[in-house]
Amino acid sequence: MGWRYDGMSRESLEATIIRIFRVVGILFFIGIVAFPFYWMILSSFKSLEEIMIKPANLGLDIRKVDFHAYYEVLFRHGFLRYISNSVYVSIATVVLSVTLATLGGYAVTRLHFRGRGFMSYSILLIYMFPAIVLVIPLYVIFSRMGLRDSINVLILVYLAQTLPVALYMLRSYFQTLPAEMEHAGLVDGCSRIGVIWRIVIPLSAPALASVALYTFMIAWNEFLFAFMFLDTPEKFTLSRGVVQLAGSVHLSKQLVMAASVLVTIPILVLFFLFERRLVRGLTAGAMKG
Amino acid sequence: MFNHQSSINNRQSLLDQESRLAFWMLVPTFTVVLAFVIFPVIWNLWLSLKPVSLGDLRGASFFKFNLTLDNFRKVFSDPDFVPALVTTLIYTVSGSALSILLGLMAALLVHGEFRGRSLLRGLFISPYIAPVVAVTFTWSFILDPQLGVLNWLAVDRGLLAQPIPFLSQRWWDLDLMGVRVRLPLALTSVILFEGWRYFPFAFLFILARLQAIPDELYQAASVDGASPFQRFYHITLPQLATVLSTLLLFRFIWTFNKFDDIFLLTRGQAGTRVLTIKVYDYAFGEFNIGASSAMAMVLFGVLSVFLLIYFRWIAKEA
User: Do A275 and B121 touch (CB under 8 A)?
Assistant: First the structure.
């Protein structure tokens, strides 16, 4: 029992416990995080019979790999269309959001005007507004105006959802840029817009990339507004399409899983390619969710 | 003298010019936020004070001043209001606490230098990055009583006598060494999902904070003979106190207002009807837009209280 009184022994005992915990803990987390994704992908390659007969089969016979679910989902259930809709919606949101956030962020950081402090605060406040409070009134007003079932209106809603955070993130970044360089540009006869275009944007490329990725992710993943607003299948985004599909095929889980893979893979690939950027965006923007 | 005056004028006009430019640069943002955030909230308040049903959407009664508190009366006297509030609080408190606890564990595990660390970090964040529809449908499939792998594995291995409908059964009677326990099954499943999906959020912030703790603190404690557990308790935890409490506030606010996850997992059935689901149910189950807006206003009121706390907090921190 000497270890009780001996600092070094206690140190090494605890270090051993920690090492064991660490291995077990990491395995536990890998398990709970990776398994659902593994299962999603695996099931999407199974046939309906395979799922019905052997629901507990954790592997997949390589000779039984079945692409049929993807074929069905893409060509029979309109997912080809949903993919292009989602790409359009997300890219349009990114372009608009980043452009307006750059202009607004710059104005809030560098230009002097009354109410600047108030602007900065209210941006943060707006960002905390929950979607569920906004969705019913927007549903009502757009229904009445006949604008609800529209991809472009959806883009404007996404713009409003992402713009405050994007502006806030860019503002924080612009504040770290030295103003002297811009002054030099101004003295040399550049306009403010010229300064933004020639000096601020090139210097902010990393921050802009973070904001773009973050905005893309929000637009790509969004469910509630797409679900409430879109009625016509030709206008569905991927998330909206997956919900529709899940409601129409009850037993064919492989179809729902294939559709889920289609909506998940692009965002995960993008994330792993630009992990550092996105993590920076996430921690700066503290994504609502 | 004259010269001085002109330079002041000049400066004044430059400032005017700057304000005007700033105005134009902020107009688009302002318009979008006004139209899609501020206006809906005001419009919501207006709707909550009027008798409006989903069928009235085409009617002309929108702008009539027939204001009433009936919608709020309906919301508060609904026999389901108190149960839904209790469910919301349980869901919010346990979901927030669980996601932060898991996030803390994950951050402590990944903290430090080792091979494959950034890969692990990326993997751990993926539940949060993946689209909500994909992960909810996948978990529903895994937990499904007929075709779900979890139930089948458990039954195969003799761990369960029969499959458990994790997301569609309200109560689960457990026999824990002679003590009968009634577990709110679907609610527990939804809370576990919440923990799974949102721990990465806490993980990221805690990890960033852990990396900012100066090494000297640990070295000094080591020299003083503090063991690893003591160092964790006396150095790491106090250093994390601020980030943990901020996370708790944030997660509480967002979980309280969370709709998507529960809606997609259970549609609010089997004892998981939270207040956000009530907003939806009033509008699209009972076609009562007025009551739905009133419910949303109640949520908004609660949120405002928390935001007030939050901004007080920021002011104190700064």
Answer: yes
Quick check: A126 and B33 CB within 8 A? yes
- The answer on A89 and A51 residing in a single domain is no
What domains can you pick out in chain B, each with its CATH number? Answer: 2-63 (no CATH), 80-207+237-287 (1.10.3720.10)
A143 CB within 8 Å of a chain B CB? yes
Q: ipTM of this predicted complex?
A: 0.89
A24 with A159, same domain: the answer is no
Sequence-distant (6+) residues with CB within 8 A of A86 are A220, A237, A238, A239, A263
Using a CB-CB distance cutoff of 8 angstroms, which residues of chain A are in contact with residue B41? 129, 133-134, 137
Structural domain including A38 reads: 2-66
Contact B131 A279 (CB under 8 A): no
How many Å lie between the alpha carbon of B77 and the closest alpha carbon of chain A? 21
Answer yes or no: do A17 and A133 share one domain. Answer: no
Q: Which residues of chain A have a CB within 8 Å of the CB of B307?
A: 125, 128
Judge if A39 and A115 occupy the same domain. Answer: no
What residues contact A241, with CB distance under 8 A and at least 6 apart? A77, A78, A79, A82, A233, A259
Which residues from B are below 8 Å from A156, CB to CB?
Answer: 32, 35-36
CATH of the domain at A81: 1.10.3720.10
Quick one: A266 and A127 in the same domain? yes
Domain count, chain A: 2
- Among the partner residues B32, B125, B276, nearest to A163 by beta-carbon distance: B32
Contact list, A35 vs chain B (CB under 8 Å): 142
- CB-nearest to B141 from A239, A253, A271 is A253
Q: Which of A22, A42, A66 is the last residue of a domain?
A: A66
Task: Note whether A133 contacts B: Cβ–Cβ < 8 A.
Answer: yes
Residue of A nearest to B44 (CA): A137
| One domain, residues A255 and A208 | yes
Among residues A44, A66, A88, the one where a domain terminates is A66
The tens-digit pLDDT sequence of chain B (318 residues) is: 455 555 666 667 767 777 888 888 888 988 998 899 889 999 889 888 888 777 777 665 666 777 888 889 988 999 999 999 999 999 999 999 999 999 999 999 998 778 888 888 889 999 999 999 999 999 999 999 988 899 998 888 888 888 888 898 888 888 777 788 888 989 999 999 999 999 999 999 999 889 888 888 888 888 888 888 888 888 899 999 989 988 998 899 889 999 999 999 999 988 999 999 999 999 998 888 889 999 999 998 888 888 788 777 766 665
Task: Check if A213 contacts B (Cβ < 8 Å).
Answer: no
Indicate whether A75 and A62 sit together in one domain. Answer: no
Clarify whether residues A146 and A12 are in a common domain. Answer: no
